Amino acid sequence: MLGTLLTLPAGGLPKFIWLSAVFSAFNTIQCLVAPLGMTRKIYSQKPDQVTPLTSHVFAAWTALSAVLRYQCAFNMGNELIYDITFWSYVIASAHFTSEIVAFKTIKMPGAAISTFCVAITSILWMIHDRDVYIH
């Protein structure tokens, strides 16, 4: 895995996105192995709405995000992958914002704070560094 890190493009953003992919992969496994554990902590305001099925759907989305982020980390110059990864973070932050504000299923600060911070940081960093990687 260290060798993999050494082949990432220069800069902090590819490493941050790669780390985000790793955490997404672990979250996917967690949602499948213990579907009511962390997911109920994230949606703590309405934990009764979290079922094994919703956790499995969340795992599928998170697995897709992990693959996309991993690909982006190694292919920062690919505009399509970069843009799709960017929009995946926008969708994630919109989801968590709607759950906090509209649906009131997430309490902030809480278990979702790290996910929300990663999404917002990624969005801002990807906007800022776009011209560094996309020519």
Overview of this protein structure:
This protein has 135 residues and is mainly alpha-helical. It is built from 6 helices and no strands. The protein is globular, with a radius of gyration of 15 Å. The two termini are 29 Å apart. The mean pLDDT is 92.
- Report the uncertain regions: none
Q: Estimate percent helicity.
A: over 70%
Number of continuous helical runs: 6
Cα-based radius of gyration, to the nearest Å: 15 Å
Mean pLDDT: 92
Main sheet record = none
- Termini, distance in Å? 29 Å
Portion in beta strands: under 5%
- Would you list the SSEs in sequence order as H and E? HHHHHH
Q: Structural class from helices and strands? A: mainly alpha
Coarse morphology: globular
Q: How many individual β-strands?
A: 0
List keywords for this structure.
mainly alpha; 6 helices; globular
SSE layout:
Elements: H1 2-6, H2 12-33, H3 37-42, H4 52-74, H5 79-101, H6 113-133
Helix pairs in contact: 2-4, 2-6, 4-5, 5-6
Summarize the structure.
The protein contains 6 helices and no strands. The protein has 135 residues and is mostly helical. It is globular, with a radius of gyration of 15 Å.
